[in-house]
Amino acid sequence: MKIQHTLPLALLVFAACAKSGPTNEYAPQASLGSRAVTKTASHSSGLVGRWSAEIVMPEAKGDDPAERMALEMAKAFAGSMWLELRDDGTFTLSMILPIEGTWKRDGSSLSLTPTKFMGMSEADFKKQAAESGGEAKFDSEPMRLDVLADGQTLRLKSDDPDEGELLFKKTS
After folding, report:
1. Quick one: which of 48, 132, 133, 154 has the fewest CB in 10 Å?
2. Per-residue pLDDT reduced to its tens digit, 83-109
3. How do 109-117 and 81-85 pair as beta strands?
4. What is the pTM of this model?
């Protein structure tokens, strides 16, 4: 999942389902069905825990009210986003709607591979969309984040500087 897909998706979801202020709800435990995920050394790397999000966007150019509003919406949206990395190699990412999957660290890179969106597998998600007369894309491509040197910050950055970056700061 690339940032150029993630940030616009996040902003679209925010616009459709906005709720005000940060949330104090705790991440639900992921259910991966009969697929067992074994604990590995990569999961004892200090990344296990809860992370809060911050969207860093380039400053608005000039006095464009639409750009300023988009920046403020992005900042507000980040207040309701969180990431929970569990010791069993599973994660939940809440961007208003939950994304669940597995995670793996490789050096200074962290891969989040989605397996469920809104509690549904890819097959169930597509089936529900088809039954509703629509078409849905379930992006199961791993989202790659950089683990910054402080060990307390994860960064998802676009190649396009105009798209900004998504930072996760460790909270617990």
Report:
1. 133
2. 999 999 999 999 888 999 999 999 999
3. unpaired
4. 0.68
